[in-house]
# Entry
Amino acid sequence: MTAEKLRVDKYLWSIRVFKTRSAAAAACEAGKVKLNGVSVKAAKAVNVGDEYEVRTETRKWKVKVTGLLANRQAYSEAIKYYIDITPEEDLEMNKRVASSFDTGKRQSKIGRPTKKERRNLDDFMQED
# Structure
């Protein structure tokens, strides 16, 4: 389904740049979505031919709008509504960032001890 008028946050969500529409709106408000080098608000209307620069947590995008997509669809359908024109050097940077991505699991011997380690410490301290 295509639309006549479409908000930037809804468009970026529908082409699967962001997982949620609220995340897309938050990125707009934080100045991470730019049209011609100028930050845009979430309610800005999208037009065919616009080129947006978008910074997400994981990568930097530069997309050219080829069609308006109002509802989220499968990735294979969504890619028909934009052209990824991200410069080569940004793609290389994205790959480097992805390879050093933190999984969230605590690294060994860094930070707070786990519950099991705390129990072992408590047992060790109680043996006096």
User: Anything to note?
Assistant: The mean pLDDT is 85.
